Amino acid sequence: MPYGYLGTDKDQTVSNAGVLSISELADLEKRGKLGGSLEKIETITSSSTSTMDFTDLKDYKVHVIQFYNFRGTGTATSAILGRVSTDGGSSFLSTSIYKRAFERQRPDGSTTILDGTQTSLNSFFAVDTDYASSGGWAIFFNLLDSTKDSLVRFQASNGVTDWQYVGSFGIDDANTHNAIRITTNNEAFAGSATLYGWKQIWVLLD
User: Fold this and answer.
1) Which pLDDT does position 91 carry in this prediction?
2) Pairing mode, if any, of strands 164-171 and 150-157?
3) What is the DSSP letter of 159?
4) pTM of the predicted model over 0.90
5) In the prediction, which pLDDT does 4 show?
């Protein structure tokens, strides 16, 4: 099927405008190739853990992790971090390859800028037993593409002092990153994290 033509005749003479017909959309959906939708890969839930490892990323170019109901289980405030793996989760990279640039903002309008090189994706948000739950999302780009550095864009609501986190990370390591670890810099945490694959639309042009 010549996806992207305005009609259904592959010999159509008009310019290709990238418009998909209803039948083309239906066929792409049937094949599981219709872009823009999220496919759930895995959910990890724990009442007390120091790591959540996603080791099956399928074959997506873009991945999304949703964090919800995260809380600390100890007495101290702990940052929720991330790391990636190149060996399917047997080990996770902890060298200075993670570049951060993000902002924390409080309800009174005060802000803190955090940047520089880190040994992890430090951090998505913080948790504490004395505050309401934290949560948010992170989008990972190019994890499985060994020719490109991986990128992460995230936004989170932090139950500890009501910080809002918005920003990004670069992973300065052009490699195949085939597993993701969510972890902490301090005490154990509770919560749920769901990994999704973001479907990309593909178009054949004749």
Assistant:
1) 98
2) antiparallel
3) S
4) no
5) 54
Among residues 81, 87, 78, 126, the alpha carbon closest in space to that of 100 is found at: 81
> Which residue is listed with tokens 């990994």?
195
What does the block give as tokens for 102? 């993000």
Tell me the residue length of the chain. 206
* DSSP state at residue 8: S
- Are 80 and 126 within 8 A, CB to CB? yes
**What is the token pair recorded at 31?**
């094949």
Residue 9 CB coordination number (10 Å): 9
Quote the CA–CA distance of 198 and 206 in Å, as a whole number.
26
**C-alpha distance from residue 150 to each of 19, 29, 89, 121 (Å):** 31, 28, 17, 12
Cβ–Cβ under 8 Å, residues 69 and 192? yes
CA atoms within 13 A on the CB side of 83: 23
Q: What is the mean pLDDT of each run of 10 residues along the chain (206 residues)?
A: 51 54 72 74 97 97 96 90 98 97 91 96 88 89 96 90 91 97 96 92 48
Distance CA 169, CA 137 (A): 13
Element (H, E) at 104: strand 98-105
Tokens of 29: 């959906």
Please name the helix (run of DSSP H) or strand (run of DSSP E) that holds residue 23, with its range, or none.
helix 22-30
Cis check: omega of the bond before 123, within 30 degrees of 0: yes
